[in-house]
Description:
Blueprint: E1 3-6, E2 12-15, H1 22-28, E3 47-52, H2 62-69, E4 77-79, E5 89-93
Parallel strand pairs: 1-5
Antiparallel strand pairs: 1-2, 3-4, 3-5
Amino acid sequence: MPKLRVQNLFGLEVAVAEGQTLLKALQAQGTDWMHACGGKGRCTSCRIVVQQGLPNFSPLSAAELRYREKGRLKDNERLTCQCTLTGGEVTGNVPEQTKLPHMKYSS
Length: 107
């Protein structure tokens, strides 16, 4: 089963089921993650900065492509509400702008 590791959440590891978005996998494990539009791909608040494993992601969704074209989503960022993993492991970080105030983050 593919795995997500979030470095700045103290190395949190999350198993991601086939076809499951990263946001759903994080929520299933009980991890709070910013998603202002409710996980519908209408904002970029749920993004993750990918450190390793970018080839293990599903192709960009229509929403992600739209934000890339507008310069609101960098090449190493994905929307957790839109993407799934195709295998292997990926490592990423919560961006500074979308950290939740009640959560503790590591460096």
